[in-house]
Amino acid sequence: MQADIEIYVLSCPTETIVEWLAKAFTLQSKELISSTSLKLELHHNDKMIPVTILEQAAGKRFTSIWFDSSDTPWNDDIECAKSAFEALNTEVRCNLQGWQEAEQEDPDQWWRINANSEGPYIWR
Questions:
Q1: How far apart are the C-alpha atoms of 59 and 69, rounded to whole Å?
Q2: 5 phi, psi to nearest 5 deg
Q3: Could you give phi then psi for residue 102, rounded to 5 degrees?
Q4: Cα distance between residue 17 and residue 38, in whole Å
Q5: CB proximity list for 8: less than 8 A, separation 6 or greater
Q6: Fold for domain 5-98+106-122?
Q7: Fewer CB atoms < 10 Å away: N or C end of the chain?
Q8: What would the pLDDT profile of 79-101 be if each residue is shown by its tens digit?
């Protein structure tokens, strides 16, 4: 299990993302932080999962969804990305190795899922 999960979705309205999360989890609270940032509190298996949704996180078209918890139903970013792609039907990207500060991984190595393919991707 990763300490946290982060994925990036392409051109997907924030309310659509919230609807997906409300179906997959119990939505406890929703707070608008700024015009591009929303904080959610989700519950899963009696555990609280803080989530931050940040529009325009990678360029103007990608929205970040950050689950600040190891208590999600996914083992890693790629499992979450697959679930998001199935639910949202839009391109999803995530870090290929997961985030490990101590390791010397290439920060441009990503996993991309879209209607045409799924696999490693160099995101620059």
A1: 25
A2: -130, 135
A3: -75, -20
A4: 11
A5: 57, 58, 62, 63, 64, 65, 92, 93, 94
A6: TATA-Binding Protein (3.30.310)
A7: C
A8: 999 999 999 999 999 998 754 55
How far is residue 43's CA from residue 55's CA, in Å, rounded to a whole number?
23
Contact 55, 18 (CB under 8 A): no
The beta strand positions in 1-124, using DSSP E, are 5-10, 26-34, 37-44, 47-58, 62-67, 92-95, 109-113, 118-122
* Whether the Cβ atoms of residue 87 and residue 17 lie closer than 8 Å to each other: no
* Length, in residues, of the chain: 124
DSSP type of residue 65: E
Q: Spell out the domain ranges in the chain.
A: 5-98+106-122
pLDDT tens across 38-59, in order?
Answer: 999 999 999 999 999 999 998 8
pTM value? 0.91
36-46 b/e (C-beta count within 10 Å ≥ 16 → b) = ebbbbebeeee
